[in-house]
Amino acid sequence: MRTRPLAVVLASGGLDSCVAAAVARQDYDLAWCHVNYGQRTLVRELTAFRTQAAFYEATLVLEADLAFLGHIGGSSLTDSHLAVPLGSDESHRLPSTYVPFRNSLLLAVAVAWGEVLTAKAVVIGANFLDGPGYPDCRPEYFEAYQRLIGLGTRPGTHLEIKTPLINLDKAGIIRLGLSLHVPLELTWSCYVNNDRACGRCSSCLLRRRGFAAVGVADPIAYVTDNTRPLEASPDRVP
Amino acid sequence: MRTRPLAVVLASGGLDSCVAAAVARQDYDLAWCHVNYGQRTLVRELTAFRTQAAFYEATLVLEADLAFLGHIGGSSLTDSHLAVPLGSDESHRLPSTYVPFRNSLLLAVAVAWGEVLTAKAVVIGANFLDGPGYPDCRPEYFEAYQRLIGLGTRPGTHLEIKTPLINLDKAGIIRLGLSLHVPLELTWSCYVNNDRACGRCSSCLLRRRGFAAVGVADPIAYVTDNTRPLEASPDRVP
User: Fold this and answer.
1) d(Cα A123, Cα A119) in Å, to the nearest integer?
2) What integer is the mean pLDDT of B157-181?
3) CB pair distance less than 8 Å for B112 and A72
4) What ipTM does the predicted assembly reach?
């Protein structure tokens, strides 16, 4: 017998979604949903997802496969012919790591499952402040998706999209995670590697910059050569 | 070198989407997109899709697998533990053949592919007039999805949702298909069978009623016992 409402959390295995899950579990029982979309690091992300779900003693778990996203290409995260950019991108152009319509696919998976489970919320760790500018991480995008849920689900469905991190930067997310005792050592952010994080891709840099700003050591392992400069002088992070 | 704009057509293998494709190809080159969502008749539908795509000499074809929809259940089309209802349903309740958030998933697949292809339209054969009342077939649902595309895709993307059948009933769709010389013998509508159409499920009944109203013989094969009453006296179709 469930005494609290249920929420489906989209958990990639990354830092943001794990913190979002920790926030959501204060108010909801969680159903953990992971989506494989043909990304380079899917094995590592899936491992991170499973260890996080086990840490939080998840009983409802869905691993959905959208491998076709890897076949249609259009993103350096899924197409091995495109290089993942290293370093920070200050161009304000949409980076090649953007995956076409990805959040709409992820949310559709979570909403479909949430509808079957009669869940009350779908939780996504999206944030926009110091992210790479993906259009489907903006608050107005989620408002439009909320409207879609109201029109496109079974009558009586009440699924609210929760974006608990939407107004936080990476340092704020890490601080929130620390305050909630999130197992940050179980999270994976690197866009490139499956063993030790590269430390150089835009996602690694954003994460390292966040930990540096908080003044706490990142508990995950990096390829040593790449992280040495950052460990020596955090203020020189690009 | 493409001289006409490109449209992604969601083609299930069914009658409606094949007619929608025939309408769209008057103005667009077509990219044919089929989605497996764990439905009972997926082998038959996929065969129908492939023969239609071959008939129209498709060069861009995507077969996307969303098999997880079969795992989460919630629909008699995907869950073998739930019976597909036979006969017409006049209850005005949402029938068990409703698949949770299905059109949002189908559209997300088509939009993601269309974004990569820089297509100008996504075509779906949805219609509402004498359908089973699925919420995600209503015009206001598609309007909300159009807004989502505007907010959730790469800047510069201009993908318009086209619903050429939205205001037609089944007889009207069949008439339109006949006028466009659509190979209706290559389409599959039955929710239950993979060889000869059952003739008794709600989808078969809707199709048979449509052909009866037009006064044309349905070119596909039905299980004989079920269709005999209809063939004898079309006006007695339930």
Assistant:
1) 11
2) 97
3) yes
4) 0.89
